[in-house]
From TrEMBL:
Residues annotated for substrate binding in this entry: 39-43, 51, 55, 83-85, 87, 89, 206, 212-214
Membrane spanning residue stretches: none
Protein name: Isoprenyl transferase
Origin: domain of life: Bacteria
Keyword annotations of the record: Magnesium, Metal-binding, Transferase
Active site: 38, 86
């Protein structure tokens, strides 16, 4: 398989990690993995650092996990980077979070282009600062022909807003004759959501010990396997990601048993 030849693969990883990767790739790898990257603030607090230091460290983990997901053959990685509720945070923190996509893409985009990763985003763009949007749009344009991993950022995303917008659009389309309400079913409704081009997540990971969805992909997670871990996002390692995939695969195997 092409991914096994991925040049990102580290030459010096411990054999157990390498073996676990090979084992994972010999089974069904979750096609779409969504992550609620939580615990940045607590990670920073534990080290007497400002909260934003946790976000910055979290950004480095995004890079690591993107590489690994691509290497394993995951098709879509959706990351909850900023929720519609996150605007309530102190302005300084919001400003910092809005600068992270620029910093991340500023240094990482050439590698994403090279490694066939396609960057997408879901969320309402109208409230995003121009500089944030510019960076994300550039990444989307530069990677639009790529056919490998889809790296989907949920940015100014909220599931309830998403569903409400979809309902309004459905009503409009029924009114103007584009849609017959008798034809409205789950598949058609899904096509009105921000994830219309994506399959539903197979696996949801949430870090930091919080066991809730926080307005994330409420419709799309209906049949998803959940993996919760106490690990704070900045501490989330390749091993943790692999563990989550292994747990997913063990559950799949049970379901498939006769
Ligand atoms: C939640 O942790 C995390 C966020 C609201 C932001 C997540 C953003 C990143 C991990 C970086 C994103 C990177 C890119 C490339 C866009 P929290 O701050 O709520 O943590 P706490 O619950 O410990 O306070």
């Amino acid at each position: 398989m092409l991914n096994k030849l991925n040049p990102w693969k580290s030459q010096n990883q411990p054999s157990s990690l390498r073996d676990r990767k090979i084992q994972i790739q010999s089974q069904e790898v979750p096609s779409h993995i969504a992550i609620i990257m939580d615990g940045n603030g607590r990670w920073a607090k534990k080290r007497s650092l400002p909260r934003v230091a946790g976000h910055h460290e979290g950004m480095k983990v995004v890079r690591k996990i993107t590489r690994l997901a691509n290497e394993l053959g995951v098709k879509t990685l959706t990351l909850y980077a900023f929720s519609t509720e996150n605007w309530k945070r102190p302005k300084m923190e919001v400003d910092f979070l809005m600068k992270l996509p620029e910093e991340f893409l500023g240094s990482f985009l050439p590698e994403l282009v090279e490694e066939n990763v396609r960057v997408t985003m879901m969320g309402n763009t109208d409230q995003l600062p121009a500089h944030t949007l510019k960076a994300v749009k550039k990444a989307m344009v530069d990677t639009k022909e790529n056919t490998g991993l889809v790296l989907n950022f949920a940015l100014n995303y909220g599931s309830r807003v998403e569903i409400l917008q979809a309902v309004k659009q459905v009503l409009n389309d029924c009114e103007n004759g584009k849609l017959d309400k008798e034809n409205l079913n789950e598949e058609v409704f899904s096509s009105y959501l921000m994830t219309s081009d994506l399959e539903d997540p197979d696996l949801l990971i949430r870090t930091s010990g919080e066991i809730r969805l926080s307005n994330f992909m409420l419709w799309q997670l209906a049949y998803t396997e959940f993996f919760f871990t106490d690990v704070l996002w900045p501490d989330f390692s390749e091993e943790h990601f692999i563990e989550a995939v292994e747990v997913f695969q063990s559950r799949q195997r049970r379901f498939g048993g006769v």
